[in-house]
Write a structure and sequence with these properties.
This protein is of the alpha/beta class. It has 2 domains: about 160 residues, Spo0b-associated Gtp-binding Protein, Chain: A (Distorted Sandwich), CATH 2.70.210.12; about 180 residues, 3-Layer(aba) Sandwich (Rossmann fold). The radius of gyration is 29 Å and the shape is rod-shaped.
Length: about 350
């Protein structure tokens, strides 16, 4: 199934059922009084987070959704049945926008999280509601209110612990195939990967992290060139960025220039994103003559003045990938623990300090 990361849908909540005018009529009770019931409320539309989904593909061809309307009221003061609510399943990481106002409504980030996006119409009132001491035979009733209707834009930002950055053919897909069960397409031409791929890397029974293979970014991506902003946003929720650099480029380009291109695009897109933890991963070393590997890697790191962690791998042979995965797992666990400790720390302002 193709990864679909944006969809536009129209949602229509159900109309409230109308109230009715009715009077009790029995053989021995000629003037039994009003007994018209209320209508039922219209069904509402909800978006629900589903941890088992990773695409918005369900909305590619079906984009109009309508909840059930409430039933009309009935005699004998019987209320009409309320319309069924409509629940639309979306993957975690979905941002929901009002497409008319461009307002961000909410982000769906947890499993079974429910977001009301269209409120069902209120029911109409039957004539029983208008009975009084001075109006014994009311013929008033009200119609049900129409349900809310909205045009929505859904954007999926993948929820991954680690994002893979690099120019086209930097070896991202090969790495994710080597360390996880994900099987993205691998080929020797640019933009082989057209849709982000998610892979779960399992270190132990209860230790794993999620890695996102982001399609290749090119120069000018922050302004929309190539795949552009369509995929840069996917790295916004990761804890760690792995910057993959091809050490044996087919066009003999300078790996240092490749690093600078990605860094410039990150800074243009988001200064916050450019400040994320980023590790340098020198790839495709199996294509570099063994006697030249050490000197070539040292030269790249020196010219970049790189201060962070550096890894040297040959993903297709799984050389160097095991240590990389263990270090990533430890980093992710430390970040999660730090987030947990921060959440448990009382706010000093709230305590009046």
């Amino acid at each position: 199934m193709k990864f679909v990361d944006e969809a536009k849908i129209y949602v229509q909540a159900g109309k409230g059922g109308d109230g009715i005018v009715s009077f009790r009529r029995e053989l021995a009770v000629p003037f039994g009084g009003p007994n018209g019931g209320d209508g039922g409320n219209g069904g509402s539309v909800y978006l629900v987070g589903n941890v088992n989904l990773n695409t918005l593909a369900d909305f590619r061809f079906t984009c109009n959704f309508k909840a059930e309307s409430g039933q009309t009221g009935m005699g004998s003061e019987c209320t009409g049945r309320g319309g069924e609510d409509l629940f639309l399943q979306v993957p975690l990481g979905t941002s929901v926008y009002d497409d008319d106002t461009q307002e961000l409504i909410a982000d769906i980030t947890t499993d079974e999280q429910q977001l009301l996006v269209a409120q069902g119409g209120f029911h109409g009132l039957g004539n029983t509601r208008f009975k009084s001491s001075t109006n014994r035979a009311p013929r008033q009733f009200t119609l049900g209110k129409p349900g809310e209707a909205r045009n929505l834009r859904l954007e999926l930002k993948v929820l991954a612990d680690v994002g893979l950055l690099g120019l086209p053919n930097a070896g991202k897909s090969t790495l994710i195939r080597a360390i996880s069960s994900a099987k993205p397409k691998v080929a020797d031409y640019p933009f082989t990967t057209l849709y982000p791929n998610l892979g779960v890397v399992r270190i132990d029974t209860n230790r794993s992290f999620v890695v996102a293979d982001i399609p290749g970014i090119i120069e000018g991506a922050a302004e929309g060139a190539g795949l552009g902003l369509q995929f840069l946003r996917h790295v916004a929720r990761t804890r760690l960025l792995l910057h993959l650099v091809d050490m044996a480029p087919f066009d003999d380009s300078d790996p240092v220039d490749a690093v600078h291109i990605i860094e410039n695009e990150l800074e243009k897109y988001s200064e916050e994103l450019a400040g994320y933890a980023r590790w340098l991963v020198l790839t495709k070393l199996d294509l570099v003559p063994e006697e030249e590997r050490k000197a070539r890697c040292k030269d790249v790191v020196k010219r970049l003045r790189w201060k962070g962690p550096v890894y040297q791998i040959a993903a297709i042979k799984k050389e160097g990938t095991e240590q990389l995965c263990f270090d990533i797992m430890n980093f992710v666990e430390q970040q999660k623990q730090a987030d947990h400790d921060s959440a448990d720390t009382p706010n000093s302002d709230a305590l009046g300090n």
